């Protein structure tokens, strides 16, 4: 991350997060394993994800300010999340990050940081 103290700063703040999210969700919607879990109107999901990732990666508490405590595991419990779906989600994020000009080390750091929560949400065998 070089001269940055947070991933949030290293990716360019909210606008950098938004670019990642905008590259990510078209891949999610096209993915046969996870696309059907998402609503057709993906814009509100993208906005919440931008707020959440900004906060998650060390930025301001935008998500909590608007939506309360993230409680991400509880929010994901209604959806059948298998190990394969967690990996598909991470694969879509990897592909989205590959489209950015972020350094490879930063892309890997982001994926490592997201892999814990992605696997924590698994609620189906």
TrEMBL record:
Heme binds at residue 119. SUPFAM superfamilies: Globin-like. Keywords: Heme, Iron, Metal-binding, Transport. Pfam families: Bac_globin (PF01152). InterPro entries: GlbO/GLB3-like, Globin-like_sf, Globin/Proto, Hemoglobin_trunc. GO terms for molecular function: heme binding; metal ion binding; oxygen binding; oxygen carrier activity. Belongs to the truncated hemoglobin family. Group II subfamily. This is Globin. It comes from Paenibacillus sacheonensis.
